[in-house]
Structure formats: C-alpha cells, structure tokens
C-alpha cells in the first residue's frame, strides 16, 4: 500500500500538469484564431510579438495564464500586465530591436499616451441654393498616426430651437492628413455639419463643427 501511495502521490502532479497544458493549448488556439491586429492593447506590438510566438516561449509556457491575462484568458494582456515581469520598462525598450522599431515612443504602444489629434475643417460655399452641394474639406494629424482613420459627418438643420438630423456619412484620412466629403442640400435654413474622429489606442478623439446656410 505504501508503494501505491507514493506512486499516486507522484502521478497526481503529472496529471494536473497535463490538464493545465491541454487547457493552455486550447486557449492558445482560440486566441491565435482571432486577429491579433484587432486587439486594441497590442495595435503596434502584435506585428512582432505574435500570439503563437509569445505562448511558445519557455517562460510564458510555464507561467500561469492569470499572470498575464489579468482580465481573463479571452482578453489580451495589457502593457501594464506585461511589465510585472518585463521590468524595468526602460531596460526592455532599450534593446536594439525595440529601439529600432520605436516601441518606446510610438503612441499607444507600451503605455505611451495616444497622440493628440488635431483637426481643421471648412465648408464651401457657406451660403448655397437648395439642391446644390457643399463640400467639407479638412486635415487631421499627426498624419503618421491618423492615416486611414475614419472621419464621421453629421449634417443637421435648425428647426425652431432644435437641430434635426439630415444626413450622416464618413470618409477616411489620406496619407497627407487630408479628407473630403460632400453633402447635397435638401432643405432651406441654417445648417451645421459635425466632423468627428473617435478615439483609438494610438490617437485621441476630436470633432469640429461648421455652419452654413441653404437659401
């Protein structure tokens, strides 16, 4: 009986380890199947630190999932969670590869604050006949981070003391930072158009409101 007891005592940890490894594989496969580039906390990091490579690392494969995935295994770890082991951050970011890729200065990466979005816009003409179009042109920056960003538009007409929605639309910011959108007028009166950019992990939100009149 004593021999059996010792054998069972040794077998239990092995079984537990096998189960944990199996669960880790299942979780890993599920996460790898998702788009790494769509995970907001790793918008920049995932281009190098893929989920497959990260989970295959010797240190990570023997570490409890909860150590990194503090918000559950279905959520990617945040830069703050990573720094609990990879510290000090200054030493990690000073490594040749990180320095070459500007990991320590890229907005939205490794805790670097998002870039402050700037935006200008104008409407032309500011007075237009009903049935004619007005064009909204503008720029958004910094262009390096805002390229491809979505600019949403909302046109409203003033009825008594309220603003009534007339139309919505969107466009994207070009590599130069410029954007353009047109609206064909349908009603007479005072109008306003709101151009807005929603916040992301790499840039902040911004909106600009411009007015025009339809006669």
What does this structure look like?
The structure is a single chain. The longest helix is centred in the first third of the chain and has 32 residues, at 2-33. The chain has a five-stranded mixed beta sheet, with no helix packed on it. The protein starts with a helix and ends with a strand. The chain is α+β, with helices and mostly antiparallel strands and 215 residues long. The protein folds into two domains: 2-100, no CATH class; 118-214, Sandwich (Immunoglobulin-like), CATH 2.60.40. It has helices spanning 2-33, 51-56, 58-61, 65-68, 79-82, 89-93, 96-100, 143-146, and strands at residues 118-124, 127-128, 133-141, 150-159, 162-172, 178-184, 189-197, 206-214. Residues 1-9 and 22-43 have low confidence and may be disordered. It contains eight helices and eight strands.
């Amino acid at each position: 009986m004593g021999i059996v007891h010792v054998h069972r005592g040794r077998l239990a940890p092995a079984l537990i380890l096998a189960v944990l490894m199996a669960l880790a594989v299942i979780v890993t496969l599920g996460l790898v199947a998702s788009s790494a580039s769509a995970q907001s906390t790793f918008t920049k990091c995932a281009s190098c630190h893929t989920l497959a490579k990260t989970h295959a690392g010797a240190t990570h494969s023997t570490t409890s999932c909860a150590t990194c995935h503090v918000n559950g295994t279905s959520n990617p770890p945040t830069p703050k969670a990573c720094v609990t082991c990879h510290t000090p951050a200054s030493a990690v970011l000073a490594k040749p590869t990180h320095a070459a890729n500007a990991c320590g200065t890229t907005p939205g990466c490794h805790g670097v604050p998002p870039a402050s979005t700037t935006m200008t816009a104008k409407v032309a003409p500011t007075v237009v006949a009903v049935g004619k179009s007005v064009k909204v042109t503008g720029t958004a920056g910094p262009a390096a981070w805002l390229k491809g960003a979505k600019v949403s538009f909302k046109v409203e007409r003033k009825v008594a003391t309220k603003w009534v929605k007339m139309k919505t639309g969107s466009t994207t910011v070009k590599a130069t930072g410029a954007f353009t959108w047109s609206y064909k007028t349908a009603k007479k009166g005072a109008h306003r158009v709101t151009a807005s950019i929603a916040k992301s992990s790499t840039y902040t939100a911004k909106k600009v409101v411009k007015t025009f009149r339809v006669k």
